[in-house]
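Researcher: Can you fold this with L-homoserine in place?
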Amino acid sequence: MKKVGVAILGLGVVGGGTYKILEEHREFYKKTHEIDIAVESVLELRKERALALGISENKIASNIAEVCSNPEVDIVVEVMGGVEPARTFVLAALKAGKSVVTSNKELYCKYSHELEKTAKKNKCGLFFEASCVGGVPVIRALLDNLQGNKILSMTGIINGTTNYILTKMTNDEVSYEEVLKEAQKLGYAEADPTADVEGYDAAYKLSILSSLAFHTKIPFSKIYREGITDISIEDINYGKKLGMVMKLLAVGKNGENGIEVRVHPAFVKNAHPLAGVNDSFNAVFITGDSVDDVMLYGRGAGALPTGSAIVGDIIYCAKHDNFNYSTFSNSEEADPATKFVTNFNSAYYIRLSARDKTGVLSKISSIFSKNNISVAQVVQENDKRANGSVPLLLITHDTFEKSVNKAVEEIGSKANLAKVESVIRVIS
Ligand code: HSE
Protein backbone atom coordinates (compact mmCIF):
# COMPACT_ATOMS: atom_id res chain seq x y z
CA MET A 1 0.00 0.00 0.00
CA LYS A 2 1.21 3.51 -0.85
CA LYS A 3 2.42 5.34 2.25
CA VAL A 4 2.18 9.14 2.41
CA GLY A 5 3.76 11.21 5.16
CA VAL A 6 2.28 14.59 6.08
CA ALA A 7 3.72 17.50 8.07
CA ILE A 8 1.40 20.12 9.53
CA LEU A 9 2.71 23.67 10.03
CA GLY A 10 0.54 25.24 12.74
CA LEU A 11 -1.83 23.45 15.08
CA GLY A 12 -4.45 26.15 15.59
CA VAL A 13 -8.14 25.53 14.89
CA VAL A 14 -7.66 24.34 11.28
CA GLY A 15 -4.38 22.45 11.88
CA GLY A 16 -5.93 20.64 14.85
CA GLY A 17 -9.05 19.80 12.82
CA THR A 18 -6.93 18.48 9.95
CA TYR A 19 -4.92 16.29 12.34
CA LYS A 20 -8.11 14.85 13.87
CA ILE A 21 -9.64 14.05 10.46
CA LEU A 22 -6.46 12.34 9.28
CA GLU A 23 -6.12 10.27 12.46
CA GLU A 24 -9.78 9.28 12.72
CA HIS A 25 -10.10 8.36 9.03
CA ARG A 26 -6.72 6.65 8.59
CA GLU A 27 -8.21 3.15 8.23
CA PHE A 28 -11.05 4.48 6.06
CA TYR A 29 -8.57 6.05 3.59
CA LYS A 30 -6.60 2.80 3.50
CA LYS A 31 -9.77 1.00 2.50
CA THR A 32 -11.20 3.58 0.11
CA HIS A 33 -7.99 4.85 -1.54
CA GLU A 34 -5.38 2.22 -0.68
CA ILE A 35 -3.23 4.97 0.75
CA ASP A 36 -1.86 5.05 4.28
CA ILE A 37 -1.69 8.74 5.25
CA ALA A 38 0.28 9.37 8.44
CA VAL A 39 1.16 12.63 10.16
CA GLU A 40 4.93 12.35 10.46
CA SER A 41 5.79 15.82 11.69
CA VAL A 42 4.24 18.97 13.14
CA LEU A 43 5.70 22.44 13.55
CA GLU A 44 4.03 24.36 16.36
CA LEU A 45 5.70 26.74 18.79
CA ARG A 46 3.08 26.00 21.45
CA LYS A 47 4.16 22.42 22.10
CA GLU A 48 1.25 21.86 24.48
CA ARG A 49 -1.15 22.06 21.51
CA ALA A 50 0.59 19.08 19.88
CA LEU A 51 0.72 17.10 23.12
CA ALA A 52 -2.99 17.77 23.79
CA LEU A 53 -3.79 16.18 20.41
CA GLY A 54 -1.80 13.07 21.42
CA ILE A 55 1.11 13.75 19.06
CA SER A 56 4.29 12.15 20.34
CA GLU A 57 7.29 14.37 21.24
CA ASN A 58 9.48 12.84 18.52
CA LYS A 59 7.10 14.14 15.83
CA ILE A 60 7.27 17.75 17.02
CA ALA A 61 9.83 19.55 14.85
CA SER A 62 11.69 22.52 16.22
CA ASN A 63 12.17 24.36 12.91
CA ILE A 64 11.23 24.28 9.22
CA ALA A 65 14.60 22.84 8.19
CA GLU A 66 13.85 19.73 10.26
CA VAL A 67 10.50 19.31 8.45
CA CYS A 68 12.09 19.83 5.02
CA SER A 69 14.88 17.31 5.62
CA ASN A 70 12.56 14.63 7.03
CA PRO A 71 12.48 11.84 4.39
CA GLU A 72 9.17 10.53 5.81
CA VAL A 73 7.40 13.79 4.83
CA ASP A 74 5.90 13.95 1.32
CA ILE A 75 3.29 16.68 1.77
CA VAL A 76 3.55 19.83 3.88
CA VAL A 77 0.27 21.37 5.07
CA GLU A 78 0.55 25.10 5.83
CA VAL A 79 -2.23 26.34 8.11
CA MET A 80 -0.44 29.15 9.92
CA GLY A 81 -2.11 32.11 8.16
CA GLY A 82 -0.55 35.50 7.36
CA VAL A 83 2.26 36.12 4.89
CA GLU A 84 5.38 35.59 6.97
CA PRO A 85 6.81 33.22 8.04
CA ALA A 86 4.30 31.12 6.05
CA ARG A 87 5.75 32.23 2.69
CA THR A 88 9.34 31.38 3.68
CA PHE A 89 8.26 28.00 5.06
CA VAL A 90 6.19 27.07 1.99
CA LEU A 91 9.01 28.05 -0.38
CA ALA A 92 11.48 25.99 1.69
CA ALA A 93 9.18 22.95 1.57
CA LEU A 94 8.72 23.25 -2.22
CA LYS A 95 12.47 23.66 -2.75
CA ALA A 96 12.97 20.49 -0.69
CA GLY A 97 10.69 18.65 -3.14
CA LYS A 98 7.63 18.44 -0.86
CA SER A 99 4.19 19.15 -2.26
CA VAL A 100 2.26 21.82 -0.36
CA VAL A 101 -1.36 22.10 0.71
CA THR A 102 -2.26 25.53 2.08
CA SER A 103 -5.34 27.19 3.55
CA ASN A 104 -3.69 30.62 3.44
CA LYS A 105 -5.75 33.00 1.27
CA GLU A 106 -3.61 36.09 1.90
CA LEU A 107 -0.43 34.19 1.01
CA TYR A 108 -1.89 32.57 -2.11
CA CYS A 109 -3.54 35.82 -3.23
CA LYS A 110 -0.35 37.87 -2.92
CA TYR A 111 2.31 35.30 -3.85
CA SER A 112 0.64 32.66 -6.05
CA HIS A 113 3.04 33.58 -8.89
CA GLU A 114 6.11 32.91 -6.74
CA LEU A 115 4.74 29.77 -5.08
CA GLU A 116 3.56 28.27 -8.36
CA LYS A 117 6.87 29.00 -10.13
CA THR A 118 8.77 27.26 -7.31
CA ALA A 119 6.35 24.32 -7.28
CA LYS A 120 6.71 23.84 -11.07
CA LYS A 121 10.50 24.11 -10.91
CA ASN A 122 10.66 21.42 -8.23
CA LYS A 123 7.91 19.27 -9.82
CA CYS A 124 5.76 19.53 -6.70
CA GLY A 125 2.05 19.94 -6.23
CA LEU A 126 0.56 23.17 -4.85
CA PHE A 127 -3.00 22.88 -3.56
CA PHE A 128 -5.15 25.61 -2.02
CA GLU A 129 -8.79 24.45 -1.91
CA ALA A 130 -9.02 25.47 1.77
CA SER A 131 -7.91 29.05 1.04
CA CYS A 132 -11.38 30.04 -0.21
CA VAL A 133 -14.80 29.24 1.23
CA GLY A 134 -13.56 26.58 3.71
CA GLY A 135 -15.23 23.24 3.13
CA VAL A 136 -17.04 24.31 -0.07
CA PRO A 137 -15.22 22.71 -3.04
CA VAL A 138 -15.27 25.75 -5.31
CA ILE A 139 -11.60 25.77 -6.35
CA ARG A 140 -11.60 22.24 -7.70
CA ALA A 141 -14.94 22.99 -9.40
CA LEU A 142 -13.32 25.96 -11.19
CA LEU A 143 -10.05 24.13 -11.93
CA ASP A 144 -11.60 20.89 -13.14
CA ASN A 145 -15.34 20.39 -13.42
CA LEU A 146 -16.28 23.74 -14.93
CA GLN A 147 -13.40 23.94 -17.43
CA GLY A 148 -15.81 23.36 -20.32
CA ASN A 149 -17.33 26.78 -19.69
CA LYS A 150 -16.55 30.37 -20.21
CA ILE A 151 -17.45 31.65 -16.74
CA LEU A 152 -19.57 34.75 -17.17
CA SER A 153 -20.10 35.75 -13.57
CA MET A 154 -19.60 34.73 -9.99
CA THR A 155 -21.41 36.21 -7.00
CA GLY A 156 -20.55 34.96 -3.56
CA ILE A 157 -21.10 35.31 0.14
CA ILE A 158 -17.56 34.30 1.01
CA ASN A 159 -17.02 35.70 4.49
CA GLY A 160 -18.75 33.95 7.37
CA THR A 161 -18.12 36.59 10.05
CA THR A 162 -19.87 39.38 8.14
CA ASN A 163 -22.69 37.08 7.07
CA TYR A 164 -23.24 36.16 10.73
CA ILE A 165 -23.27 39.86 11.72
CA LEU A 166 -25.65 40.91 8.92
CA THR A 167 -27.99 37.97 9.58
CA LYS A 168 -28.17 38.88 13.29
CA MET A 169 -28.77 42.57 12.48
CA THR A 170 -31.60 41.52 10.14
CA ASN A 171 -33.28 38.99 12.41
CA ASP A 172 -32.81 40.66 15.81
CA GLU A 173 -32.96 44.30 14.60
CA VAL A 174 -29.85 45.27 16.54
CA SER A 175 -27.04 47.60 15.51
CA TYR A 176 -23.75 46.60 13.90
CA GLU A 177 -21.81 47.63 17.03
CA GLU A 178 -23.96 45.48 19.34
CA VAL A 179 -23.77 42.39 17.13
CA LEU A 180 -20.02 42.75 16.65
CA LYS A 181 -19.47 42.90 20.42
CA GLU A 182 -21.56 39.76 20.90
CA ALA A 183 -19.82 37.94 18.03
CA GLN A 184 -16.44 38.77 19.55
CA LYS A 185 -17.59 37.46 22.95
CA LEU A 186 -18.71 34.19 21.34
CA GLY A 187 -15.44 33.89 19.39
CA TYR A 188 -17.13 34.23 15.97
CA ALA A 189 -15.35 37.52 15.25
CA GLU A 190 -11.67 38.30 15.86
CA ALA A 191 -10.63 40.83 18.55
CA ASP A 192 -9.38 42.92 15.60
CA PRO A 193 -12.20 42.34 13.09
CA THR A 194 -10.76 44.61 10.34
CA ALA A 195 -9.89 41.87 7.81
CA ASP A 196 -13.44 40.51 7.89
CA VAL A 197 -15.63 43.59 8.37
CA GLU A 198 -13.70 45.82 5.95
CA GLY A 199 -13.87 43.16 3.22
CA TYR A 200 -10.14 42.32 2.96
CA ASP A 201 -10.72 38.61 3.62
CA ALA A 202 -13.42 38.45 0.93
CA ALA A 203 -11.22 40.44 -1.49
CA TYR A 204 -8.29 37.98 -1.09
CA LYS A 205 -10.69 35.13 -1.84
CA LEU A 206 -12.27 36.95 -4.79
CA SER A 207 -8.81 37.63 -6.25
CA ILE A 208 -8.07 33.87 -6.18
CA LEU A 209 -11.49 32.74 -7.42
CA SER A 210 -11.81 35.29 -10.21
CA SER A 211 -8.27 34.56 -11.46
CA LEU A 212 -9.29 30.90 -11.79
CA ALA A 213 -12.72 31.67 -13.24
CA PHE A 214 -11.57 34.23 -15.82
CA HIS A 215 -8.19 32.64 -16.71
CA THR A 216 -6.16 35.75 -16.03
CA LYS A 217 -4.42 37.07 -12.96
CA ILE A 218 -6.70 39.38 -10.96
CA PRO A 219 -4.45 41.02 -8.37
CA PHE A 220 -5.86 42.13 -5.03
CA SER A 221 -5.17 45.77 -6.03
CA LYS A 222 -7.76 45.53 -8.84
CA ILE A 223 -10.60 44.61 -6.49
CA TYR A 224 -12.94 47.39 -5.42
CA ARG A 225 -13.60 46.94 -1.70
CA GLU A 226 -16.13 48.32 0.79
CA GLY A 227 -16.88 46.82 4.21
CA ILE A 228 -20.02 46.61 6.32
CA THR A 229 -19.18 49.05 9.13
CA ASP A 230 -21.47 51.81 7.83
CA ILE A 231 -24.51 49.61 7.30
CA SER A 232 -27.40 50.89 9.38
CA ILE A 233 -30.24 48.96 10.91
CA GLU A 234 -32.56 51.56 9.35
CA ASP A 235 -31.58 50.50 5.80
CA ILE A 236 -31.73 46.79 6.70
CA ASN A 237 -35.29 47.29 7.95
CA TYR A 238 -36.40 49.31 4.90
CA GLY A 239 -34.79 46.63 2.71
CA LYS A 240 -36.83 43.96 4.51
CA LYS A 241 -40.03 45.87 3.77
CA LEU A 242 -39.03 46.00 0.10
CA GLY A 243 -38.32 42.24 -0.03
CA MET A 244 -34.52 42.31 0.13
CA VAL A 245 -31.76 41.24 2.52
CA MET A 246 -28.38 42.81 3.12
CA LYS A 247 -25.28 40.71 2.35
CA LEU A 248 -21.56 41.35 1.89
CA LEU A 249 -21.09 40.22 -1.71
CA ALA A 250 -18.04 39.36 -3.76
CA VAL A 251 -18.88 39.93 -7.41
CA GLY A 252 -16.84 38.95 -10.46
CA LYS A 253 -18.10 39.50 -14.01
CA ASN A 254 -16.43 38.84 -17.34
CA GLY A 255 -18.31 40.84 -19.94
CA GLU A 256 -17.76 42.42 -23.32
CA ASN A 257 -16.19 45.54 -21.80
CA GLY A 258 -13.83 43.69 -19.49
CA ILE A 259 -13.63 42.25 -16.02
CA GLU A 260 -15.46 43.70 -13.02
CA VAL A 261 -14.35 42.61 -9.52
CA ARG A 262 -15.82 44.06 -6.36
CA VAL A 263 -16.57 43.36 -2.71
CA HIS A 264 -19.25 45.46 -1.05
CA PRO A 265 -22.50 45.25 0.89
CA ALA A 266 -25.55 44.87 -1.33
CA PHE A 267 -29.26 44.20 -1.09
CA VAL A 268 -30.19 40.80 -2.50
CA LYS A 269 -33.83 40.35 -3.58
CA ASN A 270 -35.53 37.56 -1.62
CA ALA A 271 -36.05 35.45 -4.74
CA HIS A 272 -32.30 35.10 -5.37
CA PRO A 273 -30.81 31.84 -4.00
CA LEU A 274 -28.11 33.84 -2.15
CA ALA A 275 -30.79 35.57 -0.06
CA GLY A 276 -31.30 32.35 1.91
CA VAL A 277 -27.62 31.98 2.85
CA ASN A 278 -27.60 32.94 6.49
CA ASP A 279 -25.49 32.96 9.65
CA SER A 280 -21.88 31.96 9.07
CA PHE A 281 -22.73 29.93 5.94
CA ASN A 282 -21.09 30.79 2.62
CA ALA A 283 -22.15 30.24 -0.99
CA VAL A 284 -20.86 30.96 -4.46
CA PHE A 285 -23.30 31.40 -7.36
CA ILE A 286 -21.52 30.82 -10.67
CA THR A 287 -22.89 31.30 -14.18
CA GLY A 288 -21.14 29.51 -17.03
CA ASP A 289 -21.99 29.80 -20.72
CA SER A 290 -22.78 26.07 -20.99
CA VAL A 291 -23.73 24.94 -17.51
CA ASP A 292 -25.90 28.02 -16.75
CA ASP A 293 -26.29 28.64 -13.00
CA VAL A 294 -24.50 26.58 -10.32
CA MET A 295 -24.56 27.33 -6.61
CA LEU A 296 -22.12 25.82 -4.10
CA TYR A 297 -23.15 26.24 -0.47
CA GLY A 298 -21.64 25.26 2.85
CA ARG A 299 -19.42 26.16 5.77
CA GLY A 300 -16.71 28.63 4.89
CA ALA A 301 -14.71 28.22 8.07
CA GLY A 302 -14.20 26.00 11.10
CA ALA A 303 -11.85 23.18 12.07
CA LEU A 304 -13.58 20.27 10.35
CA PRO A 305 -15.05 21.99 7.24
CA THR A 306 -11.69 23.62 6.41
CA GLY A 307 -9.91 20.39 7.43
CA SER A 308 -12.17 18.56 4.98
CA ALA A 309 -10.87 20.74 2.11
CA ILE A 310 -7.26 20.22 3.22
CA VAL A 311 -7.59 16.45 3.49
CA GLY A 312 -9.30 16.38 0.08
CA ASP A 313 -6.20 18.10 -1.33
CA ILE A 314 -3.87 15.69 0.49
CA ILE A 315 -5.65 12.67 -1.01
CA TYR A 316 -5.77 14.27 -4.48
CA CYS A 317 -2.05 15.06 -4.23
CA ALA A 318 -1.25 11.52 -3.02
CA LYS A 319 -3.08 10.02 -6.01
CA HIS A 320 -1.54 12.19 -8.75
CA ASP A 321 2.01 12.40 -10.02
CA ASN A 322 1.48 15.01 -12.71
CA PHE A 323 0.18 18.12 -11.05
CA ASN A 324 -2.13 20.75 -12.53
CA TYR A 325 -1.32 24.41 -12.14
CA SER A 326 -3.21 27.61 -13.00
CA THR A 327 -4.83 27.83 -16.39
CA PHE A 328 -3.42 31.33 -16.94
CA SER A 329 -0.10 33.11 -16.77
CA ASN A 330 0.36 33.37 -13.03
CA SER A 331 2.14 36.71 -12.74
CA GLU A 332 2.29 39.27 -9.96
CA GLU A 333 0.42 41.93 -11.91
CA ALA A 334 -2.57 41.72 -14.22
CA ASP A 335 -1.86 40.91 -17.85
CA PRO A 336 -1.63 44.36 -19.57
CA ALA A 337 -4.21 43.16 -22.11
CA THR A 338 -6.85 42.62 -19.40
CA LYS A 339 -9.40 45.42 -19.25
CA PHE A 340 -11.01 46.20 -15.90
CA VAL A 341 -14.43 47.81 -15.65
CA THR A 342 -14.79 50.38 -12.86
CA ASN A 343 -18.06 52.03 -13.89
CA PHE A 344 -20.16 49.21 -12.41
CA ASN A 345 -23.57 48.31 -13.75
CA SER A 346 -26.18 47.49 -11.13
CA ALA A 347 -29.54 48.39 -9.70
CA TYR A 348 -29.39 50.79 -6.73
CA TYR A 349 -31.36 51.47 -3.56
CA ILE A 350 -31.21 55.16 -2.68
CA ARG A 351 -32.59 56.48 0.60
CA LEU A 352 -33.30 60.19 0.73
CA SER A 353 -34.56 62.39 3.44
CA ALA A 354 -36.92 64.58 1.41
CA ARG A 355 -38.95 67.69 2.11
CA ASP A 356 -42.63 66.67 2.18
CA LYS A 357 -43.76 69.37 -0.26
CA THR A 358 -45.53 69.51 -3.60
CA GLY A 359 -43.10 69.19 -6.50
CA VAL A 360 -40.19 67.68 -4.57
CA LEU A 361 -40.69 64.18 -5.99
CA SER A 362 -40.99 65.44 -9.55
CA LYS A 363 -37.79 67.48 -9.20
CA ILE A 364 -35.96 64.43 -7.85
CA SER A 365 -37.37 62.29 -10.69
CA SER A 366 -36.19 64.77 -13.28
CA ILE A 367 -32.63 64.63 -11.90
CA PHE A 368 -32.68 60.84 -12.26
CA SER A 369 -34.09 60.93 -15.79
CA LYS A 370 -31.61 63.63 -16.82
CA ASN A 371 -28.85 61.20 -15.80
CA ASN A 372 -30.41 58.33 -17.77
CA ILE A 373 -31.48 56.48 -14.65
CA SER A 374 -34.75 54.64 -14.84
CA VAL A 375 -36.52 54.34 -11.48
CA ALA A 376 -38.21 50.98 -10.83
CA GLN A 377 -39.84 51.71 -7.47
CA VAL A 378 -40.50 54.69 -5.20
CA VAL A 379 -41.78 54.39 -1.64
CA GLN A 380 -42.44 57.29 0.69
CA GLU A 381 -42.40 56.23 4.32
CA ASN A 382 -44.78 57.95 6.71
CA ASP A 383 -42.37 58.48 9.59
CA LYS A 384 -42.02 62.26 9.44
CA ARG A 385 -38.89 63.57 11.18
CA ALA A 386 -38.78 66.53 13.58
CA ASN A 387 -37.45 68.76 10.75
CA GLY A 388 -40.47 67.88 8.58
CA SER A 389 -38.59 65.60 6.18
CA VAL A 390 -39.73 62.09 5.24
CA PRO A 391 -37.73 59.03 4.12
CA LEU A 392 -38.01 58.45 0.38
CA LEU A 393 -36.79 55.09 -0.92
CA LEU A 394 -35.96 54.63 -4.59
CA ILE A 395 -34.91 51.51 -6.40
CA THR A 396 -33.45 51.98 -9.88
CA HIS A 397 -33.30 49.61 -12.82
CA ASP A 398 -29.80 48.51 -13.80
CA THR A 399 -27.73 51.59 -14.45
CA PHE A 400 -24.15 52.84 -14.33
CA GLU A 401 -22.49 53.82 -11.09
CA LYS A 402 -21.12 57.07 -12.55
CA SER A 403 -24.68 58.15 -13.45
CA VAL A 404 -25.85 57.40 -9.90
CA ASN A 405 -22.96 59.39 -8.43
CA LYS A 406 -23.78 62.34 -10.70
CA ALA A 407 -27.46 62.26 -9.74
CA VAL A 408 -26.61 62.01 -6.03
CA GLU A 409 -24.23 64.95 -6.34
CA GLU A 410 -26.86 67.05 -8.10
CA ILE A 411 -29.51 66.29 -5.47
CA GLY A 412 -26.96 67.17 -2.77
CA SER A 413 -26.28 70.53 -4.43
CA LYS A 414 -29.94 71.58 -4.32
CA ALA A 415 -30.64 72.90 -0.87
CA ASN A 416 -34.25 72.47 0.31
CA LEU A 417 -34.87 69.43 -1.88
CA ALA A 418 -33.57 66.27 -0.22
CA LYS A 419 -30.53 64.78 1.47
CA VAL A 420 -29.17 61.48 0.16
CA GLU A 421 -28.63 59.30 3.23
CA SER A 422 -27.56 56.02 1.64
CA VAL A 423 -26.80 54.41 -1.70
CA ILE A 424 -26.66 50.60 -1.78
CA ARG A 425 -26.29 48.30 -4.78
CA VAL A 426 -29.11 45.80 -5.42
CA ILE A 427 -28.79 42.30 -6.91
CA SER A 428 -31.92 40.67 -8.26
N1 HSE B 1 -12.55 34.94 8.63
C1 HSE B 1 -13.05 34.07 7.63
C2 HSE B 1 -14.58 34.20 7.58
C3 HSE B 1 -12.66 32.64 7.93
O1 HSE B 1 -15.18 34.85 8.47
O2 HSE B 1 -15.19 33.70 6.66
C4 HSE B 1 -12.33 31.80 6.76
O3 HSE B 1 -11.58 32.40 5.78
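Model: Folded with L-homoserine in place. The pocket of L-homoserine is lined by residues 134, 159-161, 196, 201, 300-301 (CB under 6 Å).
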